[in-house]
Design a protein that fits this description.
The structure is a homodimer of 145-residue chains. By secondary structure, chain A is of the alpha+beta class. Chain A has 2 domains: 82 residues, Arc Repressor Mutant, subunit A (Orthogonal Bundle), CATH 1.10.10.10; 52 residues, Ferric-uptake regulator, C-terminal dimerisarion domain (Dna Ligase, domain 1, 2-Layer Sandwich), CATH 3.30.1490.190. Helices cover 45% and strands 23% of the residues of chain A. The first copy, chain A, has 6 helices and 6 strands, in the order H-H-E-H-H-E-E-E-E-H-E-H. Chain A has a 3-stranded antiparallel β-sheet with strand order 1-3-2. In chain A, strand 2 and strand 3 form a beta hairpin. In chain A, helix 2 crosses helix 4 and helix 3 crosses helix 4. Chain A is globular. The first copy, chain A, binds a DNA duplex (25 and 25 nucleotides) through helix 2 and helix 4.
DNA sequence: ATTATTGCAAAAAATTTGCAAAAGC
DNA sequence: GCTTTTGCAAATTTTTTGCAATAAT
């Protein structure tokens, strides 16, 4: 199976875009963590490798990486958009802890099935979906309040 | 059953806040539409009644109205936050059309049940949740592409 | 009379854009 | 060599905040 890096290169070539050093650097730090990072988080991380990179470049790189099908935007209701992996990652939903901010990824084929039923009933063609449950996670519950 | 206006007044009194003209005006325009409006939408609407109101006042009023349990923030992925009714409205999910922006509200007790099962399994205490399916609505499909 | 709220303008925070210099093909 | 991309700074957009004037109880 193609590596994410190969997928990006192919996408760039197919669309007449250039394979710049910065785009690969941003992809690398993005791939290296499973956390849901903001552009600013990614910017700080890439800067360790390449201190001369600009924040706008990271914004632009992440847009390309999303367009290439490798990342997806996810909004957890704190002011900034975050990104999550899309390549070789199954579709999933999120439990978001309101106390510690932890995000737990969960799958539920049964819910997917009901979603299908729901869209069919409304003659709605689904493209993507998102489900988030906000609350208190196991660990924070143990700590009390 | 208490009217939304009464709920707001009670909330204000209980919390040592004042029942200002502006707060009631914002609540009125919010109640009058079932659409998911942004603060700016609400601002434009209230201005018709009270041209001297400030945008910051609308932001502050909507926060109070949410705190009073009458509204809830909903994010549809366009840059601004939007609000929806919470009082006397059952919990529901959204089908969001990517072509025309229409938002269809749907209910699914079966999905709710599966959500419960999911949170229980992770020992997660749910507080609120949101599910959105993005895609193409019936009408836009008929129009073709 | 006392305290909270308003309107305005300024500040923040997140993201986008214009453009000359640099890099990729 | 031609075109795209970068870095920087300035511009935009959304939301928040400080504060003197005003309104509510």
């Amino acid at each position: 199976m193609k590596s994410a890096k190969t997928v990006l290169r192919q996408y760039l070539k197919n669309n007449g875009l250039l394979a710049s050093k910065q785009r690969e650097q941003v992809l690398n730090v993005f791939l290296k963590t499973e956390k849901h990072l903001t552009v600013d988080d990614l910017y700080e991380l890439v800067r360790k490798k390449n201190p001369r990179i600009g924040l706008a470049t990271v914004y632009r790189a992440m847009r390309v990486i999303c367009d290439a099908g490798l990342a997806r935007e996810a909004d957890f209701g704190d002011g900034s958009k975050r990104f999550e992996h899309k390549y070789k990652h199954q579709h999933h939903h999120h439990l978001v802890c309101l106390k510690c901010g932890r995000v737990i990824e969960v799958m539920s084929p049964e819910i997917e099935k009901l979603q299908q039923k729901l869209t069919k009933k409304h003659n709605f063609t689904p493209v993507r979906d998102t489900m988030k449950i906000f609350g208190t996670c196991r660990k924070c519950k143990r700590k009390g309040e």
